[in-house]
Amino acid sequence: MILETLSNGRGVSGNEAAVRDLILEAVREHVDEHQVDALGNLICLRRARVRREDGQPPLRVMVAAHMDEIGLIVTGINGDGTLSFDKVGGIDDRVLPSKQVLVGANAVPGVIGFPPIHLIPRSERDRAPNMSQAVIDIGASDKAAAEGLVKKGDYVSFQTTYQALDTDGLRTVKGKAFDDRAGCAALVELLQGDYAVDLYGVFTTQEEVGLRGARVAAYRIAPDLAFALEGTICDDLPKEQGDDTSPVTELGKGPALAFMDRSYVADRRLLRLLMDAAEREGIPYQFKQAVAGGTDSGAIHLAREGVPAVTIAVPVRYIHAPVTLLSLNDFYHMVQLVRAALLALQGGLPS
Ligand SMILES: [Zn+2]
Questions:
Q1: Second label for 105, Cα 20 to 30 Å away, from 26, 126, 168, 237?
Q2: Which DSSP string do the residues of 229-298 spell out, in sequence order?
Q3: Does the domain formed by 2-69+176-347 have CATH 3.40.50.360?
Q4: What is residue 131's predicted lDDT score, i.e. its pLDDT?
Q5: Which of the following is catalytic: 207, 208, 230, 250?
Q6: Is the full-model pTM beyond 0.85?
């Protein structure tokens, strides 16, 4: 299962090569061309296999999914053998204490140190921890021993292994980096279809630190339109009594269409294309009910003279934390929905 392989892969922003190699292995035989650009984006082209209904040349369609994941980076090696670190991407300090991590290219195991409850004064136990002084403990006895294992600038990823929870029909799975390996895995599946468009499948870099890879890839490709495939916020667990606000997304209710987030406003024609395709094919979908977060669409839609773009996302519980959950039903419905939308482009871009 490609989602499992990619979730277990390690690729914090700016260090996506290992994940890119896994993806390339999966798509190589299905694409007509591929290249890696200066920022590390993997740009694949699967040419149109079907003629357009109106005889016009095929549309250039960019489908983007980001390879990078949130993580940490080593900023210092201390006298006692511990490692100082900074965060890469948006991480809440409160999810960090006592987590297991892997450091550097050799995947040196470590733990984010945190004092035991016995030593935390009662008055401080209700407060969020201040992680600015936190360190990673790799078990080294002193600085020299630590320097033999890791170096400053090494990337740190969370140590989480993909696992099917198999509770019921939701087909829930647990893993790290479903944001956005879910999008990457979906794009791998989509690159195996026959469409009337030239499909540029772009596995982007550095999304979590500012949509950087997508920006240069969109400039190179100059697409007619774009889809960004994502993992997104899912907050469907019970809230306080009396709170009747609807969640941003719900697990198992289908892929979420983002009509707007902090980085873009969706192209209405593409939203309509997706909604029509979903209704025609009987594919469940939902809307992302919060204007929060940013996606590669934010960079792509501002490329060159502008590109119509829309983001479609699998709901991911506990997103941007070391362990996340998604429903495989949502994942496969996203693949089906985007495939149906790509097929519908045989008639050109709807007006
Ligand atoms: Zn993402």
A1: 26
A2: EEEEEE--S--STT--PPPS--TTS--EEESB-SS-B--HHHHHHHHHHHHHHT---EE--S-----HHH
A3: no
A4: 82
A5: 207
A6: yes
